[in-house]
Amino acid sequence: MKEDTEPKQTSPPTLHKTPLYLGLFFMALLLTGIAIGEPNRVMEQAWQICLSCIGIG
Amino acid sequence: MEFIRKWVQIIAGFLMNGYWLFPWTRNIYQGPLKVICAPGLNCYSCPAATTSCPIGSLQHLLGGIRLALASGQYFFGWYVVGSLGLLGGFFGRMICGWACPFGFFQELLHKIPSPKFSIPRILRYLKFAILLFFVILLPLLAVDEFGIGNPWFCKYICPAGTIEAGIPLLLLQPSLRETIGFLFFSKLVILTAFTLWAIVASRPFCRVACPLGAFYALFSRVRAIKLRLDEHKCTNCNACHQVCPMEVKFNESPDDSECISCLACMNQACKFDAISLEFCGLPLTGRRDKRLTAADRIS
């Protein structure tokens, strides 16, 4: 009956490192893309209206 | 918190669509901000768009991979996938709930008084198929005689492109109206279907068809910022089921890939402090150490 009136012990929070490793991995991908000039290609595409992409033409 | 979330959605929407000179220029924004990939689904052919659509950019890069390789450029989508992965690894589908203009649009539609219906859970898997086939495989493999692939998702499905770019551009540039045909009308049908569906069901496009949501959903178990369930405090009263816009049964699947971390369950439903926000496993929200009595638990 004592268990009903007192909260159970919870384990102390621990740092999860997986998101940090994932962040490092994707940061490396991002920097690779920047190093080979991919952002310029992305920007060139985004500057143009792709009519067929939006169902026109 | 819901008030704050609404304002974050509005501000994010304006930041991604902050080019308000388009009625005079009658063209889209062509400035340097377009190098940034928008966190949410936001068409970069929208006249007001200031950023790039990550899904559109990825399809274009994959579709043009042969030409890029032929010219010695190794454009495999590193930059776009890196940007999306960073966002996904930290926020996951929290972006859908807080920073996606099309998600916000659906939330507003759902406020229209009408009978409300649920969406069958099986349909959630369709968006992963759309991500795999329409965003990755078809642009990569179905190429024309020049070796260029089409942006299949943008071209044949994306309702955000129709409402944000297709319709406004037809209004701004009357000469384009002569060029519309079956493709545009088929996309209008898709837009209309999702618009009507969003009135009677919560966020149908996010849950059924959004490839960006599918990508972020891949991080649901490992993302840095997520909701945490304290099983010792949870009474399985199922109050969290009632408020969730994504119909997540949080107490049964706290790492559900559909959770957009809107915090409705934490702030509006749970009376027992069983739900909290964490960053890499460390609590972000102060947990009130409320000692619950048996009577509280039963009530």
Features:
heterodimer, A: 57 residues, mainly alpha, disordered N terminus, B: 299 residues, 2 domains, 3-stranded antiparallel beta sheet, 49% helix, 4% strand, disordered C terminus
SSE blueprint and pairings:
The complex is a heterodimer of chains A (57) and B (299).
Chain A (H helix, E strand, L loop, with lengths): L1 H4 L12 H18 L2 H10 L10
Chain B lengths: L1 H15 L5 H4 L28 H10 L1 H6 L7 H14 L2 H5 L2 H10 L15 H16 L10 H5 L2 H14 L9 H19 L3 H5 L2 H7 L7 E5 L9 H5 L20 H6 L5 E5 L2 E2 L10 H5 L1
Antiparallel strand pairs in B: 1-2, 2-3
Helix pairs in contact in B: 3-5, 3-8, 7-11, 8-13, 10-11
Please summarize the sheet with the most strands of chain A.
Answer: none
- The tally of structural domains of chain B comes to 2
Strand content of chain B: under 5%
Physical arrangement of strands within the biggest beta sheet of chain B? 1-2-3
How far apart are the first and last residues' alpha carbons of chain B, in Å? Answer: 25 Å
Query: What global shape of chain B is seen?
Result: globular
Shape of chain A: elongated
Biggest interface in this structure?
A-B, 47 and 71 residues
Low-confidence stretches of chain A: 1-5
Number of strands of chain A: 0
Q: Give the N-terminus to C-terminus distance of chain A in angstroms.
A: 73 Å
Helical percent range of chain A?
A: 55-70%
β-strand percent of chain A reads under 5%
Mean pLDDT of chain A: 81
SSE ordering of chain A: HHH
Rg of chain A, nearest Å: 25 Å
Q: Could you tell me the mean pLDDT of chain B?
A: 91
Q: Tell me the major beta sheet of chain B.
A: 3 strands, antiparallel
In oligomeric terms, what are we looking at?
A: heterodimer
